[in-house]
Amino acid sequence: MTELCADIGYYSLNKFGEELCGDQVSVIEQENNSIVVVLADGLGSGVKACILSTLTSKIISTMMAGKMSVEDCVNTVAHTLPVCSIRGVAYSTFTIIRISQALREAEIIQYDNPNVILIRNGKNVEIPATELIIDGKKILKSKISIYENDVFISMSDGATYAGVGKKMNFGWQRDNIAKFMEMMYDIGFTAKTLSTILLEQCNKLYENEPGDDTTVCVLKIRRREPVSLVVGPPSNPDDVKKMMSLFFAKEGKHIVCGGTTSTLAAEYLDKPLVPSLDYHDDEIPPMASIEGVDLVTEGVITINKVLSYAQNYLEDNQSYKEWSYKKDGASKIARMLFEDATDINFYVGMAVNPAHQNPDLPISFNIKMRLVNELSACLRKMGKTINVSYF
After folding, report:
1. What pLDDT, on a 0 to 100 scale, did the predictor assign at position 28?
2. Are the CB atoms for 223 and 188 separated by under 8 Å?
3. Judgement on whether residues 155 and 274 belong to the same structural domain of the protein
4. Which of 2, 16, 239, 314 could bridge across to 234 with cysteines, CB 3.0–4.6 Å?
5. How much is the pLDDT for 360?
6. What is the value of pTM for the model shown?
7. Cα separation values, 206 from 14, 164, 177, Å
8. CA–CA gap between residue 227 and residue 245 (Å, rounded)
9. Structural domains counted in the chain
């Protein structure tokens, strides 16, 4: 299943008045390209729930990734975590999704969380499940084949409680959530975008005062899409041809950033560099175009804006409302890296541009390098496969 990959995005709302979330999501990648995702909902809220859910998600995801049985996982959690003095229960509820890349199969294990929703071809598909009794607890276990663009939605019960006592008498029922996500389904939406859309709707039903910790985790099966980005000329001018040949040899889309870099790319391709005077955003320099290149932008200022979008993407993703539709270079790069790309190749020229040096920092500190390193770190946290080559 190397041509497909799992795009994972999750987002949480804290119970109103609480600083910590009692839900936790843990993701572990295995050597055989399989992925284990655990969403745990700790009992109660606040610090105790946060500790319970964190321990539960880490224990289960680590054991499942180690090919331990679900029985062993549940028993370990039950005997490891402290028992709640009020409820007499030792652990949180949980949902486990394990994607087997080689077998094109998803294994789903659920305990007391709302059942996982599967959206396939824009329609809700019920997932058949077998009931198991483990340590006195009813566990639902499923195994199903997976296909490109399948969307799995797991959630804590804060999602189904949304609106209780406010806009809805009995909360937002799972079937209604499934219908809502059918309407929101779009092949172009990433897992993070879908989780953001659903959580924002939950927050509206709570009237911005969530009555419970609410977490949504979306896992989307998608085709791998490589994107390559080159920025800066190489430190040795003799390496220009090598750098550009490696860059353009990569499959997928190509982004060229920086004035000097654009000139070098145009010369390598023997195509004209056509600048634009259109300012789509007063803060972002205009773009250019080169035949054979998907996107040509300015360098440091543009990438700095992309970095700020990436940092927000990993938080509440509110900046999505900006970069998802704007036509400036930073927004276009954000869409290509955050939404289109699964595998990203950076080609970074090490030549020092005096204009990019901050006089308040050591002369060797290169702003361009810092931006690329921080952006790469953010993209890895998004689940992208990153490769950085320096010249």
Report:
1. 85
2. no
3. no
4. 239
5. 52
6. 0.84
7. 12, 8, 14
8. 15
9. 2
